[in-house]
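Suppose you are handed only these lines of text.
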Amino acid sequence: MKLVLATHNPGKIREFSQMASGDDIELLPMPDDLDPEETGATFLENAIIKASAAAKATNLPAVADDSGLEIDALEGRPGIRSARYVPGSDADRRLKILEEMSEVPDGKRQAAFVCAMAFCSPDGAVLNTTEQRWHGTIGFEERGQNGFGYDPIFNLIGRDETSAMITNEEKNTLSHRGQAWREMLDFIRSAELPV
Ligand code: ITT
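From them, the structure of the protein bound to inosine 5'-triphosphate can be written out as follows.
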């Protein structure tokens, strides 16, 4: 089955491609010039905006994820603004979070990566959605080179590692995006959609 992956984020594209490899699903890139405005108030609304726009533009089924980091001590920030919390690079945004969290003690540094995923038919109608969380804590410094975005400051529960210190394979097993993708695959298979 051909499915458009509605994202321009290289980190997400790499993870989705790894998760879909060896599968009967062929992920196609979304058109370069398509960049739907993320005007939703929730992760789910934004995932639907992206998947629906990509499906209509290509006349193919499409899947999108809208994701981000919710930090308890920051009342859920950066949340749906994770990709644009401060101008600049992912490294600038990590630094901003480390600064904001610098006085927050151990034990009050809980956070979760959230992934909302939407699957749309070629006419843009929503066929299925899911939202999954990956719980962790925010570190006091960056550690690790793998992954992307906020991975170097996201500590795993019960382990002395960040999500940037584990293999891509293990991240896909544990992560918000991996959990959401497996749910979506179950739906796609059970719905027996036309290929
Ligand atoms: P698209 O909209 O094109 O998919 P984007 O980067 O703008 O790309 P989002 O609006 O969903 O995507 O923002 C997600 C941001 O949340 C992303 O840029 C990272 O900063 C962060 N994020 C999401 N999942 C992550 C992960 O697995 N590891 C680290 N950071 C993550």
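What can we learn from it? Residues 72 and 146 are 24 Å apart (CA to CA). The pocket of inosine 5'-triphosphate is lined by residues 7-9, 12, 38, 66-69, 82-83, 90, 113, 147-151, 175, 177 (CB under 6 Å).
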